[in-house]
Amino acid sequence: RARLKELKIKLRENLDELEAQLFECVGQKFNPRSPQQVSEILYQKLSLPRPRSKTATATDEECLEYNRGRHEVIPLMQDYRGEHKNYSTYVVGLEKDIWDDERVHASYLLHGAVSRTSCKDPNVQNMPREGPIKSMFIAPEGWEIFWPDFSQHEFRMVAIYSGDEWLKEVFNTDRSLHKEMAHDVYGPDYSDEDYVHTKNINFGLLFGRGAYSLSLQMKCSVREAQEKIDEFYTRMPKVRPWQDEIIAAVFQGEDLISLLGRYRRFGLITHENIKHVSNEVMNFYPQSTGSDTVLVAGARVHTSGLYDASWMRPIAFVHDAIGYYVKKGNRERLPKIIAELERIPQEVLNTDVRMKVEAKIGDSWATLKDL
Question: Per the database record, which ranges form the DNA-directed DNA polymerase family A palm domain (predicted)?
Fold first, then answer.
């Protein structure tokens, strides 16, 4: 609680400083938390353009990213919003969720409309990847945080469902999908920017992002983005037909049932929601099966002969990762835990696609290092 209070004061000071920089940058005071006032600054005072798909007053992240490089106020506004979210959502939110033992105890929701587990009070699955918030989560004295994360897990689910041989080969020879795709598309001397673009496109294909959305992120034309999407699909020839097949099945009124028996039903499909439904259909199998296999792996390790609560305790499920407290001096036991976590999903799904766990360990969630 004391650490959180210190961070709250620091973030408030950062926000005050960013506000002063924003006012100086545009030559007037305004409320950076008011979409209307931000819209007036961006589009009337500074005459900046907006993406064609946005309304006249839109000021969301896509609009800011669209104008990044056109005016120095844009990165300042992005920094302000990020810092304010840290302050209002995470720090202030965490304050009310701290128990008397100085820790938080999230509640997990196993069933819902979405295809993966969620949690609340607090939502530890939504903590920012970067920044100071994770430094608030620390292990008790004499313990450390062990964090096994299933690598590219949802893409492995796509390989299982689609039966794509190229994807299977990549995973079964212990290679990275993103690195392999970047090598094939951009050549062996691909840049860091090429790698980032590759990851964006791979996840875009998984979650149904269109060429226009990707073009904004990649800062290229819609045509170039679509060409890249098509090129990626040619390297995974069974993925697009599989996606088309399950979308068509839902449009014909069928329910989706995962390999582990999770159902997903869709209501009335209209012209207004058809794109959203299509994206949810594509998300369902990899997300639900990925999430459920992580839960099953965690549960079975817990009941295996490898687990002992005297030195190891589960603390969180965060998407494709499981967090544990491990008593210091027990690191030599962890490779067997990792091997068991990798084995269980493959056995449960009866698949030849190998799983991979990348594990980190450290005194806090923010300071985890490779095991």
Answer: 130-330
Question: Quick one: 311 exposed, middle or buried, by C-beta within 10 A (0-12, 13-18, 19+)?
Answer: middle
Query: Measured between alpha carbons, how far is 163 from 245 in angstroms, rounded to an integer?
Result: 13
If DSSP codes are grouped into helix, strand and coil, which group holds residue 103?
coil
Centroid of chain to Cα 108: 18
What is the model's pLDDT at position 279?
A: 92
What are the residue ranges in the chain where pLDDT is below 70? 112-114
Q: Rounded to an integer, what distance in angstroms lies between the CA atom of residue 359 and that of residue 356?
A: 10
Q: What is the pLDDT of residue 312?
A: 97
CA 262, CA 345: separation in Å to the nearest integer?
15
Residue 301 three-state SS = helix
Burial class (CB in 10 A: 0-12, 13-18, 19+), 327: middle
Say which residue the tokens 């073009």 belong to: 215
Report the candidate in 202, 198, 182 with the shortest Cα–Cα distance to residue 190. 182
- As a whole number of angstroms, the distance between CA 371 and CA 334 comes to 9
Please name the helix (run of DSSP H) or strand (run of DSSP E) that holds residue 192, with its range, or none. Answer: helix 192-207
In the chain the domains, ranked by start, together with CATH numbers, are 2-98 (1.20.1060.10), 105-164+270-371 (3.30.70.370), 165-269 (1.10.150)
Q: What angle do CA 265, 269, 271 make, to 5 degrees?
A: 155
Residue type, 105: H
Distance, in Å, from the CA atom of 134 to the CA atom of 362, rounded to the nearest integer, reads 12
Q: Is the peptide bond before 122 cis (omega within 30 degrees of 0)?
A: yes
H helices present in 27-115, as ranges: 35-39, 61-66, 73-85, 92-97
Please, are residues 344 and 301 in contact by the beta-carbon 8 Å criterion? yes
* Distance (Å) of CA 140 to CA 218, 326, 327, 362: 43, 10, 9, 12
Q: Dump pLDDT digits (tens) for 96-152.
A: 999 999 999 999 988 765 678 889 999 999 999 888 999 999 999 999 999 999 999
